[in-house]
Amino acid sequence: MSNQNIYQREADFLQNAKEFMTRSDYSKEELQLEAKYLIENYEELVSQVKIITRISDRLQRKLDKTNTKLEQTNVQLNETIDALTEAKIGRKAATIVMIVAIALFVVSEAWIEPIIDSHFPNSEYPFVGLGLKLVVAILIKPGEDLTNRYMLRKARKKQIADAKAKRKTKKKV
Questions:
Q1: SS3 120
Q2: 102 to each of 96, 133, 134, how far by Cα in Å?
Q3: Deepest of 5, 89, 99, 116, by most Cβ within 10 A of its Cβ?
């Protein structure tokens, strides 16, 4: 039976009861019979409401569980995206720092080393050139960390700006 038929039946019961109440001439038996119909109908409605409420409660619990799972999945996805972004930026930062370190090494070998050798003969200060290369090597990791932090800040600012733009677009729609 469809919902409209159930409602129509209930509307008919209600209409009959209203019409009965407008009459002034009814017997005790008619009153009892009408009360019996109303009680039976009301009892059936209460039974239907209980069933509908149980089904609704069950569906709500399922919906709550699904929402909780979706929220957990969303958190995991965001953490994964953040980790991937950090890894990608970390690789870029390492590449940039390595390129800079190689460039410094080449510059050191090609231009700075000859200047150092001409000003400091090997017999007096043999480790000046090597010390310069050691300083460059020691600065690689802090340089990578600084570059990584800078690029992460830049990426997070971009993510925040993108999220704001997305929310503005949703509000307009």
A1: coil
A2: 10, 11, 13
A3: 89
- The encoded tokens of residue 88 equal 């990608």
Structure tokens at 155: 């990426």
The candidate with the shortest Cα–Cα distance to 155, out of 84, 75, 52, 58, is: 84
The residue to which tokens 């209460």 are assigned: 46
Q: Give the rounded distance of the alpha carbon of 45 from its chain centre.
A: 43
Q: What is the pLDDT of residue 140?
A: 84
CB 38 within 8 A of CB 17: yes
For residue 129, count other CB atoms closer than 10 A to its CB: 19
* CB neighbours of residue 69 within 10 Å: 10
**How far is it, in rounded angstroms, from Cα 96 to Cα 143?**
9
In the chain, domain spans:
3-172
Alpha helices in 23-139 (DSSP H): 28-107, 113-119, 128-138
Task: Return the structure tokens found at 116.
Answer: 């150092």
Residues of the chain below pLDDT 70: 1-6, 120-126, 173
Closest by Cα among 72, 76, 89, 80 to 157: 89
| Tokens 């310069």 sit on residue | 132
